[in-house]
Amino acid sequence: MNDQLQQALAALLNKTISGLDAGQQFLSAQLPDVIHQLLIWKATISGLAFAVGLVVFIVTVVLDILIYKNKEYWNDREHPPAYMVVVFVSTIGGIISIPILFTNLEWLQIWLAPKVYLIEYAAHLAR
């Protein structure tokens, strides 16, 4: 009975070890593809956020310039301070977009130094 139990335990351990080996081989074969997909995903998300912030900032600046150049048009209306509300809302949008621009530069780091980004990302995950 003891021999059968030891043989069953040895067979179970051998199956476990072979399963771990197969899993390790699979992971090491797939790791470069996973890292590539991670870099693409992070760069895309960061790039989109940067682009949205940049578009909002540019639209804000252009809108403020257009309103400033045509303030006589706005002053001739029934409610003269109406352009001030538009300028205020536009300026607030521009102010909000500035931190979005400067906090979403991961795409640039991934493009210029992907290995450094991966080290920092791994350190962030380890915390």
Instruction: Indicate the percent of residues in helices.
Output: over 70%
First-to-last CA distance: 49 Å
Shape: rod-shaped
Order of helix and strand elements from N to C terminus? HHHHH
- Largest β sheet strand count, sense and barrel closure: none
Q: In total, how many domains does the architecture comprise?
A: 1
- Mean pLDDT across residues: 83
Query: Approximately what portion of the residues adopt beta-strand conformation?
Result: under 5%
Number of strands: 0
Outline the low-pLDDT stretches. Answer: none
Please count the helical segments: 5
* CA-based gyration radius: 29 Å
Structural class: mainly alpha
Protein architecture, described:
It is a single chain. The protein is mostly helical and 127 residues long. The protein has one domain. Helices cover 91% and strands 0% of the residues. The protein has 5 helices and no strands. Helix 1 packs antiparallel against helix 3, helix 1 packs across helix 4 and helix 4 packs across helix 5. The longest helix has 68 residues. The radius of gyration is 29 Å and the shape is rod-shaped. Keywords: Membrane, Transmembrane, Transmembrane helix.
